[in-house]
Amino acid sequence: MSGLCWLSVLWMFGIRLISCEITCRNEEGDPVDWFVVYKLPKNLINETYGPGLDYFYLDSKSQGWQVSKFFINMTQGAMAHVLQQLYQSYNRNDTAYMLYNDSPPGINSSFAQKGHCKGALFFDKYQGFWLIHSIPHFPPFPENGFGYPETGRFYGQIAMCVTYKYEQYEQIAAQLLYYNPNVYNCSIPDIYQKDLWGLYRICQGSGFPWVEATRLALLESAQGESFLNFAKSKYFHDDIFTAWMAQKMQTHLLTETWRPTGIEVPSNCSLPWHVYTIKRIKLLANSFYSLHDHSKWCVSRWTTNMWTCIGDLNRYPQELWRSGGFVCSQNEIIYKAFRNIVAYFSDCEKDNFH
């Protein structure tokens, strides 16, 4: 079976089997269906500056947030474990990968004409992972190995990894055509050209075909969990949360996105399903203002639908034309983890505490 091998390793007093499938990996380096990482900002309420490297971790085998015993820049953490697979095998002709970021490594400016999106894909003919995140200048080029940028310390950041079977990458490729990502490093060998012509064209820098304003795709993880992917192109000139996501999912959304100027984007109750602005977050004993968070996510206000979405776009007027998207789940564990960290948010008339 392509992409599958097993290594027997002496581990303590027994034998440990290590899967060589390309997959998301947990804090121990073992395969998981999905994981979420939430890095704390340096500026925490009622505390002096922290290192800006502490993070919380959640995956398909856990029941809630766990405080990682590692810093996010350490090679023992989940982010390093998943990316090391790419760094160790990126030059093989039977694997494909793509690294994209509108603020790529080694460049201070942003590619504003491209999608406001950041991520990494790595897969073979069997399966692989799609890692989406909010971290500028990350991850490093494969030949440089794993590292974390100093610029990524100050603000809060988020990342989500999902493992997908190969058959799902045709849908992912179609979604990324709408994202219009700024690809700074990639390899899509010829064996993938027929199935994944969209990724091949993105990697080659070829002209894209005409796309509509939006595209919605239902993705299925390797373990059969459903994820809904909202992708908007540059032709959709509106707030993705208010004009599309909340109305499509039929849920009031609490939103957390970065505000570059510090000016609060007001909540919007003009449509049947409302969108509210989160103002403060509390992860266990760690509390911080939304102003210091560069993450982009939303969660249903009520438990009726239990949607949680993680992705790329800000509720910021000057960025409404940017392309990008969100990966959404109705997983109860993910929902409770995110809903419970909303300390308070701005309703259309007043502040609401959790």
Major sheet: 10 strands, mixed
Radius of gyration: 19 Å
Low-pLDDT segments: 1-18
Number of domains: 1
- How are helices and strands ordered from N to C? EEEEEEEHEEEEHEHEEHEEEEEEHEE
Distance between the termini: 49 Å
**Overall average residue pLDDT:** 91
Strand percentage: 25-35%
Helical content class: 10-25%
Structural class: alpha+beta
Number of helices: 5
DSSP E strands, number: 22
Family: Belongs to the DNase II family.
Organism: Engystomops pustulosus
GO molecular function, one term: deoxyribonuclease II activity
Catalytic activity: Endonucleolytic cleavage to nucleoside 3'-phosphates and 3'-phosphooligonucleotide end-products
Would you kindly provide a written description of the structure presented here, covering whatever features stand out?
One of its GO terms (biological process) is apoptotic DNA fragmentation. One of its GO terms (molecular function) is deoxyribonuclease II activity. This protein is α+β, with helices and mostly antiparallel strands. The protein has one domain (about 20-354). The chain contains 5 helices and 22 strands. The chain has helices at about 80-90, 170-180, 195-205, 240-250, 330-340, and strands at about 5-10, 15-20, 25, 30, 35-40, 55-60, 65, 95-100, 120-125, 125-135, 155-165, 185, 215-220, 225-230, 255, 275-285, 285-290, 295-300, 310, 325-330, 340-345, 350-354. Strands 13, 14, 15, 16, 17, 18, 19, 20, 21 and 22 form a 10-stranded mixed beta sheet that branches. Strand 3 (about 25) and strand 4 (about 30) form a beta hairpin. The termini are far apart.
